[in-house]
Write a structure and sequence with these properties.
Length: 522
């Protein structure tokens, strides 16, 4: 289908008496008024005639503007006039097929938001409904099969939502086409342990919200999905696994860990997702095992006394879709009680440049960097060339200790026989990390990024570091060359928070090519 044959005037009838079983997740308010916008922690003041496709604004910021997430924001029902004015402006300033808002991904998210918004209203605006139909027709002609991943999933979800909202043969075609794609993509994108195949806790949470939204439709009008009985039975079970994965990959503070592209403020919080799931009838049960090995995605969670440890033994991602991958093999994050102690550095932007290169690179993660190279060859904003492979993952017990070890071969492309092996030894009140470099190297740096709330002073004698947040706890470093340097943690897009990085310089000689770092709680 080409744009020229899309009907720009008429639209299908809407279904009568259509509503959702449960209210979907609400998002924060980001559109203040018709001249003030706040996305990704960046405030912009601009008139509507110029803001929609302003070349000076980051692409992701513009995407968020065109999503119209405010249609499902907190208090949206009290801002009907403002939101309606914005939609009218969007229709006038963004003719079909022109501008950022007509790219299939923001188009898909906006279609879903428009449907949810319309379902919450007692009456519909004809111009907005006609525009919605045009947007769906354009999306149907521009499905992102070539990009796959969350883009294709969002395209298909939007078609299903449109088929649910509208009535008639065209609407049925949209629903059927969307379901055909989703049936294939759910099986491919959600792995056996419940994790999303891009291995980003943030994108996993977004995918989980998508699945809950789709379940909401199926529960509301089961007759529309009578041909998909198997999936109506299967998808809730997949959702349960996805919830379990999300909880396992989160810290005791209730928020996600930072592996690959991940930050707060993009996906709904765990509390919001779990609440939505419960409203749809899910019973959320927390895994109480002290070791949870999410083997399909490649992560390990260990809980021992006050210690919660999250370990990355994952593949970079799908071979054909490493867009959100970082060079973070064998990195880890760890919390003591409900306080994060060691973290990865997070994600604050997607624009190509030195900041994006650094945040995806090995040196921004709590792992080992050899000869100032990345363990996987990340480049551009969303590309990866040669990738590290993790192997020899071993989980064992010795007395009261849990011992986990793994290796990766990411540096073989530079140094023959050079392998990074990391071992974590977890006891009731201690966590020990041992790094071994097998083979030759010139420089190897083992970095451990401390959460900003961990206030530290200078290293004490005998390589001991007091953790200011926990006055009775210390960190011992068995290394001849260790330093503490200022750094930054990126918990949200557009945010950088000062923190510290503990860095150990591993020496290569016949006697010592390893180091030990031990957290001790007294």
């Amino acid at each position: 289908m080409s744009f020229k044959v899309i009907d720009l005037v008429s639209c299908p009838d809407t279904r009568l008496n259509t509503c959702l079983v449960s209210a979907p997740i609400e998002y924060p308010r980001c559109i203040i008024d018709t001249c003030n916008f706040h996305f990704l922690n960046q405030n912009v003041k601009s008139d509507l005639a110029t803001v929609w496709n302003c070349d000076e604004l980051p692409k992701l910021w513009l995407y968020n503007l065109h999503y119209f997430n405010d249609l499902k924001s907190v208090g949206a029902e009290k801002r009907q006039d403002l939101l309606n004015d914005l939609l009218v402006s969007w229709i006038e300033q963004n003719p079909p097929g022109h501008g950022v808002g007509w790219e299939p991904y923001p188009l898909s998210i906006r279609i879903v938001n428009l449907v949810k918004w319309q379902l919450s209203k007692p009456s519909f605006d004809t111009n907005i409904i006609v525009s919605l139909a045009v947007q769906v027709r354009y999306l149907e002609a521009n499905i992102e099969h070539h990009l796959k991943g969350n883009h294709l999933f969002s395209n298909a979800k939007a078609l299903v939502f449109a088929g649910y909202f509208f009535d008639g043969p065209e609407a049925i075609r949209w629903l059927q086409k969307g379901m055909r794609i989703l049936i294939s993509e759910v099986g491919e994108q959600i792995l056996g342990d419940g994790g999303h195949y891009e291995r980003s806790p943030m994108y996993h949470a977004l995918s989980l919200e998508d699945m809950l939204d789709l379940e909401n439709l199926m529960l509301t009008k089961p007759e529309l999905f009578s041909n998909y009985h198997v999936h109506k039975e299967l998808w809730p079970k997949i959702i349960d696994k996805m919830i379990s994965w999300l909880i396992s990959m989160s810290h005791p503070d209730g928020n996600i860990s930072f592996f690959n592209d991940a930050s707060f403020g993009i996906a709904p919080s765990n509390v919001e997702i779990v609440s939505y799931a419960k409203r749809l009838g899910h019973i959320v049960v927390k895994n109480t095992n002290d070791v949870v090995y999410l083997k399909d995605t490649g992560y390990i969670r260990v809980v021992k006394g006050p210690i919660t440890l999250l370990i990355d033994v994952a593949a970079v991602g799908p071979d054909y879709l490493p867009a959100h991958a970082h060079a973070d093999s064998l990195s880890y994050e760890f919390s003591f009680k409900e306080q994060r102690v060691v973290v990865n550095s997070g994600t604050s932007l997607y624009e190509q440049g030195t900041a994006r290169d650094f945040q995806r690179g090995t040196s921004a993660h709590s792992t080992v960097e050899i000869d100032f190279e990345n363990s996987s060859e990340v480049w551009h904003s969303f590309r990866v060339a040669r990738r590290a492979q993790v192997y020899d993952v071993v989980i064992e017990r010795s007395g009261s200790c849990i011992i986990i070890s793994a290796k990766h071969n990411g540096y073989l492309r530079f140094k023959k026989q050079t392998i990074h092996k990391r071992t974590w030894i977890i006891d009731v009140n201690s966590l020990e990390i041992k790094d071994d470099i097998l083979g030759g190297f010139s420089t190897a740096l083992s970095r451990h990024y401390l959460h900003p709330e961990i206030k530290v002073s200078e290293l004490e004698s005998q390589n001991k570091l007091s953790l200011g947040e926990f006055s009775d706890d210390i960190l011992e470093i068995d290394s001849d060359d260790v330093s503490l340097s200022p750094s930054q943690w990126h918990p949200e897009f557009g945010v950088s928070v000062p923190n510290f990085c503990l860095q150990e310089n591993l020496e290569f000689n016949s006697l010592k090519n390893c180091c030990r770092l031990k957290f001790i709680s007294n």
